[in-house]
Amino acid sequence: MSDVVYFDNNATTRIAPQVYEAMAPYLTELYGNPSSIHSFGSRVGRALDSARTQVAGLLGTGDEVEVLFTSCGSEGDNTAIRGILGGVPEKRHFITTAVEHPAVLGLGQHLEKEGYRVTWLEVNEDGMLDLDELRDALSDDTAMVSIMYANNETGVVFPVHEAGEIVKARGIPFHVDAVQVPGKIELDVKNSPIDLLTVSAHKFHGPKGVGALYVRRGITLRPFIVGGHQERNRRAGTENVAGIVGMGEAAAFTAGDVAAEREHLGGLRDQLQSALVSACPDARVNGAKSNRLPNTLNVAFEYLEGESILVLLDEFGICASTGSACTAGSVEPSHVLRAMKVPPQWLQGAVRFSLSRYNTQAEIAFAAEKVPGIIRRLQGLSALGRVGTKENLPGHAS
Ligand code: PLP
Asked: Where do the domains of the chain lie, and which CATH numbers do they carry?
């Protein structure tokens, strides 16, 4: 077992060795510009074509024209949403969910400031969407709907195909943020009601700084970055060739063995989950009753703070995360857990363990042994096991 036990794969993943090898020549000797006329450049252009075919395979379209390379998942989301809204300026209503990644959440908030009416679909306490609420929200003024496929904090999987059928019945464009999905659920865009779908290479053992957006043929997208003619005039800028080649390679092996991978990940995750829940009876698994990504475990420990748990995990080399954003000195509870109406005593104490194909049984056993001790240590530190109020902190005279 290495010094680092990496359980933060929903944040980013390790580059696969074959991905690194495929990229290397494009960072060294094959440095031509893929748009150049000379054969040195067009050789690089052919590498882009192959990567596009590989990514098309991962997404489930045989049509490479539908694959647009971007710089990351955030760009894919912004391109999809701005690109559609820009084409129908007369429509001023946008629908998304209250639990999106900040890439969509933040854009939705911007749109509100620009005068759009934004519907934030709620989730229930299991983190699940209500499709009737979606159906009722659609109107003639709705420009588009954007819904994440799987939640990055809890792993809860939304019924995007059913949602898409509802949206498409009204002839409204439908975008899906599928950044957390490759390698865990098979993508099949061709046989789906999805018009646009975002992925990002660094979430499936590809490099950072490259992503892709599926754009169904016939969907008109206003370019987000204007300039040169790259990406069929849909995204200007000289391509990140090495990154795209790496993404293609990662897509090829990720698409290959999703079922086996799901079993491997689900087995490890369930083992960690049952070990933690049985050792810490007050622990609460967020989203446990919903269909979840097989690699994600979001577990909250009563009256503790997730950040303190992470610091102690770090002492053992265990990398995990909370879902919450830290802002100068104050720790905001996660918008996802708040939307799920997680009771206050668990709201601050959530830790997300997210696994990948590189995690092992030995690492799970190591975490299952260390985490309960950390929790007991912190519970002992927080007088009466409560950090919810100042009066209960050690040393505070009440
Ligand atoms: N959407 C989801 C669901 C994510 O989990 C992330 C990253 O965590 C993003 C979008 C943004 O992707 P990127 O980091 O490639 O911009």
From this structure: 5-12+258-388 (3.90.1150.10), 17-254 (3.40.640.10)
Q: What's the CA gap between 145 and 97, in Å, rounded?
A: 9
The tokens describing 32, both together, are: 């031509």
**326 catalytic per annotation:** yes
Cβ(72) – ligand 1 distance below 6 Å: yes
Residue environment code for 342-360, b if the CB has 16+ CB neighbours within 10 A, otherwise e? beebbbbbbbbbbbbbebe
**Pairing between strand 142-148 and 117-121?**
unpaired
Q: Which two tokens stand for residue 255?
A: 């698409």
Q: Report the nearest atom of ligand 1 relative to the CA of 12.
A: 8
pLDDT tens string, the chain, 398 residues long: the values are 789 999 999 999 999 999 999 999 999 999 999 999 999 999 999 999 999 999 999 999 999 999 999 999 999 999 999 999 999 999 999 999 999 999 999 999 999 999 999 999 999 999 999 999 999 999 999 999 999 999 999 999 999 999 999 999 999 999 999 999 999 999 999 999 999 999 999 999 999 999 999 999 999 999 999 999 999 999 999 999 999 999 999 999 999 989 999 999 999 999 999 999 999 999 999 999 999 999 999 999 999 999 999 999 999 999 999 977 665 556 789 999 999 999 999 999 999 999 999 999 999 999 999 999 999 999 988 755 454 444 444 433 33
Pick the closest to residue 64 from 76, 78, 74, 54 (CA basis): 54
Give the Cα separation of 91 and 85 in Å (integer): 8
Q: Report how far apart, in Å, the C-alpha atoms of 301 and of each of 69, 181, 305 are.
A: 40, 27, 8
181 C-alpha to ligand 1 centroid (Å): 11
Closest by CA to 346, choosing from 280, 281, 299, 276, is 299
- Residue whose CB lies within 8 A of the most ligand 1 atoms, among 10, 74, 96, for a mutation test: 74
Q: Do 196 and 176 touch, CB atoms closer than 8 A?
A: yes
**Ligand 1 close to Cβ of residue 388 (< 6 A):** no
